[in-house]
Design goal:
Layout: E1 2-9, H1 14-28, E2 32-39, E3 52-54, H2 58-68, E4 72-76, E5 92-97, H3 102-108, H4 113-116, E6 119-122, H5 128-131, E7 141-143, E8 173-178, H6 187-198, E9 203-208, H7 217-226
Parallel strand pairs: 1-2, 1-4, 2-3, 4-5, 5-6, 6-7, 8-9
Organism: Oceanobacillus caeni
Protein name: Glycosyltransferase subfamily 4-like N-terminal domain-containing protein
Length: about 230
């Protein structure tokens, strides 16, 4: 079996890293998988050992599918190139949602989308009833959560490249939130969980986020100040 993932950009975010992890898991089962990125991003290095390509134009996309021998094409987030899949392609077409947002709703409302995909993959069970009304009855919807791969590991402080990296107070543990600070990432629930732990244990709340792409940063600081949480 051979799969082609179609993804907007080779960023260093969750959608791309999860795809990488899934492909590595597929390989162990003898399943081939490749990636077609519509544009280049800062996460390209994660795919140095995985066949991946960058879009040149529509003809390039169609040629890759015609000659690739793919049994399945999985569109992650974006469905912009679904309409360009050659009519000669006989494999399955799948749409994968990694969340629920206005952008996702805009994608699945497009004309004939519901008739053009063979299945849906969601990141969580709560998305299933949200997406179901937009697709024809009988379209299978599968749930597959984030795939974890131990690409991160603890590095002794003496060997770290970042010598001035922060560290918790003595005898304190850290509960960290990693990702964009926005409603979709449910950071407010993280704060609620932290407050429960903080009542019983010496812990600190750390947010590892890019403020340029986190539209909830101001709300985060406001709520933490209100609840006397030091970041």
């Amino acid at each position: 079996m051979k799969i082609l993932y179609v993804i907007n950009k080779s960023t260093d975010g969750g959608a791309v890293s999860t795809t990488r992890n899934r492909i590595n898991a597929f390989r162990k089962r003898g399943i081939e998988a490749e990636v077609f990125f519509l544009s280049r991003g800062d996460g390209a290095n994660m795919f140095k050992d995985i066949p991946h390509y960058y879009l040149k134009n529509v003809k390039d996309f169609q040629k890759r599918i015609t000659n690739g021998g793919y049994d399945c094409i999985i569109f992650v987030y974006s469905l912009d190139y679904l309409k360009h899949v050659p009519s000669s392609y006989k494999g399955k077409k799948i749409y994968e949602l990694r969340g629920w947002s206005k952008g996702v709703i805009s994608q699945i409302r497009k004309k004939n989308i519901s008739k053009s995909v063979d299945a849906i993959v969601c990141i969580a069970h709560h998305i299933v009833p949200l997406v179901r009304p937009y697709f024809k009855k009988g379209t299978p919807i599968f749930v597959d959560g984030n795939t974890i791969d131990p690409i991160f590991q603890y590095v002794e402080q003496s060997t770290r490249a970042w010598k001035e990296s922060p560290k918790p107070k003595k005898d304190h543990s850290v509960i960290a939130f990693v990702g964009r600070v926005e409603m979709q990432k449910n950071w407010k629930e993280f704060i609620s969980i932290f407050r429960i732990f903080a009542k019983k244990y010496p812990v600190e709340a750390w947010f590892l986020s890019n403020p340029k792409t986190s539209n909830g940063i101001e709300d985060l600081h406001r709520i933490c100040e209100k609840k006397s949480i030091k970041l």
